[in-house]
């Protein structure tokens, strides 16, 4: 649901992964299973992830550069995105990668429920 641009525009893989980590939610959770508290937590985590992306001027993972030719630094501030098998910064559990809806997603199986 987070990657559905008709529902919430602007959230790509990096921000979805990071928001779900911030909200402590597994990417496999169905949206209709979330409690009101979890929805509030997810909303706050989405805002935080997007704000961090703005502060870090985007993510230069492949070819993205800013108008002045320099790179953004969001990719240097991620907790789970593209960190497969690396230890979680919070608990040390290896970050996992799965494919959902044809897209890769990364998460900590311990911190996210």
What attributes characterize this protein structure?
two-stranded antiparallel ribbon, 2 strands, single chain, Helicase, Ruva Protein, domain 3
Question: What is the element layout, followed by pairings?
Answer:
Layout: H1 13-23, H2 36-55, E1 96-100, E2 103-107
Antiparallel strand pairs: 1-2
Helix pairs in contact: 1-2
Describe what this molecule looks like in 3D:
By secondary structure, the chain is α+β, with helices and mostly antiparallel strands. The protein has one domain: Orthogonal Bundle (Helicase, Ruva Protein, domain 3), CATH 1.10.8.50. It has 2 helices and 2 strands. Strand 1 and strand 2 form a beta hairpin. The protein is globular.
Briefly summarize what is shown.
With 113 residues, this protein is of the alpha+beta class. The chain has a single domain, classed as Orthogonal Bundle (Helicase, Ruva Protein, domain 3).
